[in-house]
Amino acid sequence: MNQRILKIPYPEDLPEALGETPEEFEQKLRFLVAAKLYEMGRISSGRAAELAGMERVEFLNNLGRYRISVFNYPLEELEREIREAQARAGKTR
Question: Tens of pLDDT along 12-70?
Fold first, then answer.
């Protein structure tokens, strides 16, 4: 797969101010961009993990650190599934 490189300038002292090495800071930025795109429903968890440079399970496990849900359902879809589950539960009684 062809890839492009995105360069993001940042103050040289920023990683140190955050208690991170430049490598840790850049990896965190990579993860956060991927996580936000995933949270917005723009990309799948697999694609987000690829963008973050990690395995899918590792990516999903790390989402909780930033209070991002692993479940990426639009509200309408979640409400529909709840109604359907409630309807099924009512039929089994």
Answer: 999 999 999 999 999 999 999 999 999 998 999 999 999 999 999 999 999 999 988 88
Cα–Cα dist 79/77, whole Å: 5
Token pair in block for residue 23: 């490598």
Measured between alpha carbons, how far is residue 38 from residues 5, 57, 92 in Å? 20, 14, 36
Rounded to a whole number, what is the largest CA-CA distance in the chain? 65
The answer to whether 41 and 74 are in contact (CB under 8 A) is yes
Contact call for residues 28 and 59 (beta carbons, < 8 A) = no
Contact 45, 38 (CB under 8 A): yes
